[in-house]
Structure formats: structure tokens, C-alpha cells
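User: quick one, sequence for these C-alpha cells?
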């Protein structure tokens, strides 16, 4: 009995929107989903030119007979459903005929498939959806689909595609999603002939997480396992000490299908509550399983979004799963005591600077908001909310945002060291384990990192750092590097333009800056003020926020009705 059949028009109309191929990543997604549904244990994906030039997906799953292969490339063919009712209970990711016709109609596509090593295989070549060549070939187990010259017959669509790097990054996102959702499958991913990922199948999610991210980060992940009788939430989430600056690392899977669901991500954060700093996000892999009748999968053309029939119940289950995983674990990060001789050091610097310098005269002549020549003559009153330094100056008050100020100080110090090529060679290389896609980002931006003073050897799953800017400490380089990677990824690219180098510099420099809500002693406050006033631009942080504001005494007197 044939596995492929032709749908009736009514059913076909409901899935027609999902057949639209918008970019190379959609092609990869559809083809890999087909391979997964074919019970493949090994899937190889190779792209060239960001997938615009060529996409090849090869699997060892259930292949097709010649008759099924021909049916699979016909419009509205399918191997999984017969009627509208089947759509509502569909648990699989995709099916051959759902994607192949749409892909072949906008490309030059090869389909090579076979059911057994004992039987001849079938090869079909199409251009614009039309069969150009069909022949029998040597036995083959599995299916290979090669897509070339995407949108060759749609010039406007082809012109609208982004750069090779941008399209590659979109493909990489989908590959990563498949890898963490199907840990038992061996995935190989190549880009322009170079292996990006080679992840053999493993027995559990933690092992796959270690492959995709790193073993060190895998050790900071907590297991999720919660159920309320109908809804079950499994997966992993990170300790509050392991975070990212965007929610891109919160992955939501519903009945094995990746979906975009902002309310679920919000439920994850609610599960953390105050345990995670505002503006940071955990790494979370959520696997939500529930009866198909509790889901509507047809609100998005490519089934990337779903709607829960009882959303509040699902969100409650997610929050419970997160909070329970955090409840019995020591989540307080370990910190080494920090010795500080800041006060003595700053006072010594000030004494040296004051020689031959008329500090008091300069202070008396300055106007509110002007750069202070030194901190002599300025009285530090203290901290406000452990975030702002309060100073009394002639003619008024000065409030300094300690975090913004320290960001400015560190950024200008790093820029100065880069200009003067003040770098430090490490006695022994610092080896940092990274995910393969993070290594790829470093590799594609290597010239920028070299310009900033780094010497980095990139491997498949790690980097070896041999030289760093002088202001960085060896033990903070890992976090600084992750900050730069997150910044590049946030721009939707794997490679950024040269003019964006300043933003990477400031991003890396800001990583070690004093934070808001951090208690400072008088010496530390003195050092911040002293260094800030020697910056080229002391008035704003690298991101444009003000570092200081002033309040004139006459304004204070007006508020107390001492002045009209």
C-alpha cells in the first residue's frame, strides 16, 4: 500500500499557507523535519552561500518507492493525513509531500531515495516543479534532497534575501533547535565545506546540552520534571548564575514541535521570580507534552505558533516546574573574597596630581555640570540606593551613576590600550569550551578580535586564548568573550561590520563594570570620580546614558521656599 496520497482540496487549503518557502532556513527546517519523521538516526545537512546556492539534507531513515517518490513531489501530497480531523491530532513534525512540491517549485531540486540496500533507488531532478529527469540508481537506504539556486525563477524574492552570513545564522538557529529536541539523532552540519556541528546521538538531554553548549554549562543546568495529570513539563533550566542577555536561549517545544510562545517565556521568568536579575534570562529547554485536543496548531502558516485551549493551566504548570527545580538547590554563586586597598591607592595618586595644581581655584571657577579637574574640594556624602554617588560641590549637588560612570572609565581605558597596543601574553593559553556556533561567530569575526588585542586559536568546540588586552584579568575573559558573542548574535548576524567594533569594545569593557545596587566604600567612590573626570567624554556612558546630573543650590532653595 502506498504511503503517499493526494489530499482533497478542502484539507489542502488548510495547510497551503504553510507551504510558502520564505528563505533558505525554511527549506532546511522542512527537510530536516521530514528526515526526523522518517525515523532517521543520522541526518547530514550541508549549505553553501547561506543556503541560497545549495542545501543538501541526507538521512538514513525510511526511504520511498519510485511510485511514492513521484507522488511526493505532486501538489498537496502527504504521507500522514487523510482529512481535516487528522490535522487536529497530528503529532509528527512534517511529511514528505507537504514540503517537497513547494521547495521544488522555486528551485532546482534533486530527490534521491531508496527503501532498502537490496532494491534499486529512485532519482528525480526537477526545475521549477517540473520533472526534468527520472531514473533508477544503485540501492540506497534513506533519502537525499539537494536544493540548488533557490528562487532562480523568482528574481524579486531572491533579491530580498539577506547576506550569506545572515541566512546562515537563521539556518544555524533551526539546526540547534533540532539538536536539542532530538538528542538520540546524530546531526552533522556543514557550511561551505567546513564542519560546524558533528554531534553523535546521546542517551539524555544533559549530554546533548553539553555537546551544543559546553560541559561546564551543562553542570549548571537543573532538571525539570512536573505534571498535573494532563500537562507534563520536562527539560532543563539554568541556575541563576548562568544567564544570557536575551530570551533567545529559552526553547519551547510542544509535543516535540518547536514553537514561539512569548507567554510561556514570561511564565519561565515568573518561575524564577527575584532569583534572577532583571534584564537577564536563563537558558531553558522546555518540553511540554499534553493531549493534542488541548492544542490548536493552525494559527501560524508554518506551525511555529500554537494556541493552548487552556492557556492558564499550561502557564501554571511551567511556573511550577521552574520554581520546584530551583527550590531544593543551592543557587548562590561562589565568590572569592576581594581585598581592596583602593582608598590608599587613590589618595596617593591624588597627592601626586595635586603637586603644582591649583585644585581649589579650579573648583571655585567651575560651573555646574562642567568636568571636575580633580576630586579635591569635592565632598562625597555617600551612596543613594547603592547606585548613585552623592557629592557636594560648590554651588550644588552632583549625582553620579556608579555603573554608567564605570562603564565609561573601562571603555576609554580599553580603547587607549588598543591604540597603544598594550596587551599581555598569557604564560599558558586560556582554553574555553564553547558551543560550535559560538566558535563560528569568533572565527568569522577574528580580525576584529585581533585588532582588539586578542590572539585566539579556534577549534571545533573550544578556543585557546594566548593574548588579551592588559586591563582584563584572565579569570574574567570567559564572561567578556560570551558578552561579545551575545552582542554579535543579537544583531542577527554571525559577522559584524568594522564600524561596529566600538560597540563590541564597549560591550566587553562594560562586562566588568561596577553594578547598580552594589555597596561601595569611600575609597571606591573616590576612584570612580577621579577616573571619570579624566575621561575624554565623562558625561555619558558608552551607550549614551548620562553618567552624572547636577542640582544647583538655588533649585534646592526654591523647593524649601528659601528663594522665590
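Assistant:
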Amino acid at each position: 500500500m502506498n504511503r503517499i496520497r493526494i489530499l482533497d482540496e478542502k484539507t489542502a487549503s488548510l495547510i497551503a499557507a504553510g507551504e510558502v518557502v520564505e528563505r533558505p532556513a525554511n527549506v532546511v527546517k522542512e527537510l530536516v523535519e521530514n528526515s526526523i519523521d522518517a525515523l532517521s538516526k543520522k541526518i547530514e545537512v550541508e549549505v553553501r552561500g547561506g543556503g541560497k546556492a545549495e542545501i543538501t539534507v541526507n538521512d538514513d531513515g525510511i526511504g520511498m518507492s519510485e511510485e511514492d517518490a513521484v507522488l511526493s513531489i505532486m501538489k498537496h501530497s502527504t504521507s500522514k493525513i487523510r482529512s481535516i480531523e487528522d490535522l487536529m491530532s497530528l503529532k509528527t513534525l512534517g511529511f514528505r509531500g507537504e514540503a517537497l512540491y513547494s521547495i521544488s517549485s522555486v528551485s532546482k531540486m534533486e530527490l534521491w531515495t531508496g527503501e532498502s540496500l537490496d532494491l534499486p533507488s529512485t532519482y528525480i531532478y526537477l526545475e521549477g516543479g517540473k520533472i526534468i529527469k527520472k531514473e533508477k540508481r544503485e540501492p540506497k537506504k534513506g533519502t537525499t534532497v539537494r536544493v540548488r539556486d533557490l528562487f532562480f525563477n523568482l528574481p524579486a524574492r531572491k533579491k530580498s534575501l539577506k547576506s550569506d552570513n545572515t541566512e546562515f545564522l537563521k539556518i544555524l538557529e533551526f539546526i540547534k533547535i533540532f539538536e536539542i529536541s532530538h538528542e538520540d539523532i546524530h546531526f552533522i552540519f556543514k557550511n561551505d565545506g567546513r564542519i560546524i556541528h558533528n554531534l553523535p546521538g546521546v542517551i539524555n538531554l544533559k549530554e546533548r546540552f553539553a555537546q551544543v553548549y559546553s560541559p561546564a554549562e551543562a553542570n549548571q543546568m537543573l532538571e525539570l520534571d512536573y505534571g498535573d495529570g494532563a500537562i507534563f513539563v520536562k527539560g532543563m533550566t539554568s541556575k541563576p548564575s548562568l544567564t544570557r542577555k536575551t530570551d533567545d536561549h529559552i526553547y519551547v517545544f510542544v509535543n516535540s514541535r518547536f514553537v514561539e510562545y512569548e507567554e510561556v517565556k514570561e511564565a519561565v521568568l515568573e518561575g524564577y521570580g527575584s532569583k534572577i536579575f532583571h534584564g537577564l534570562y536563563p537558558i531553558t529547554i522546555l518540553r511540554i507534552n499534553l493531549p493534542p485536543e488541548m492544542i490548536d496548531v493552525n494559527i501560524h502558516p508554518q506551525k511555529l505558533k500554537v494556541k493552548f485551549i487552556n492557556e492558564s493551566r499550561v502557564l501554571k504548570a511551567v511556573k511550577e516546574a521552574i520554581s520546584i527545580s530551583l527550590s531544593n538547590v543551592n543557587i548562590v554563586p561562589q565568590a572569592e573574597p576581594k581585598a581592596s586597598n583602593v582608598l590608599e591607592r587613590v589618595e596617593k595618586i591624588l597627592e601626586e596630581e595635586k603637586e603644582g595644581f591649583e585644585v581649589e581655584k579650579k573648583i571655585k571657577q567651575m560651573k555646574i555640570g562642567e568636568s571636575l579637574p580633580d576630586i579635591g574640594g569635592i565632598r562625597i556624602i555617600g551612596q543613594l540606593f547603592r547606585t548613585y554617588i552623592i557629592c557636594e560641590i560648590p554651588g550644588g549637588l552632583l549625582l553620579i551613576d556608579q555603573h554608567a560612570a564605570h562603564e565609561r572609565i573601562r571603555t576609554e581605558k580599553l580603547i587607549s590600550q588598543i591604540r597603544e597596543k598594550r596587551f599581555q601574553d598569557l604564560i599558558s593559553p586560556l582554553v574555553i569550551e564553547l558551543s560550535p556556533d559560538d566558535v563560528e561567530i569568533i572565527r568569522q569575526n577574528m580580525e576584529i578580535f585581533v585588532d582588539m588585542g586578542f590572539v585566539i586559536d579556534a577549534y571545533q568546540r573550544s578556543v585557546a586564548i594566548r593574548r588579551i588586552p592588559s586591563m582584563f584579568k584572565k579569570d574574567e575573559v570567559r564572561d567578556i568573550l560570551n558578552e561579545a558573542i551575545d552582542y554579535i548574535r543579537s544583531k542577527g548576524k554571525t559577522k559584524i561590520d568594522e564600524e561596529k567594533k566600538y560597540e563590541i569594545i564597549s560591550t566587553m569593557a562594560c562586562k566588568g563594570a561596577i553594578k547598580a545596587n552594589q555597596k561601595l566604600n569611600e575609597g571606591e567612590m573616590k576612584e570612580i570620580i577621579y577616573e571619570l573626570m579624566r575621561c575624554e567624554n565623562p558625561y555619558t556612558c558608552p551607550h549614551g546614558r548620562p553618567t552624572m546630573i547636577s542640582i544647583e543650590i538655588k533649585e534646592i532653595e526654591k523647593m524649601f521656599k528659601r528663594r522665590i
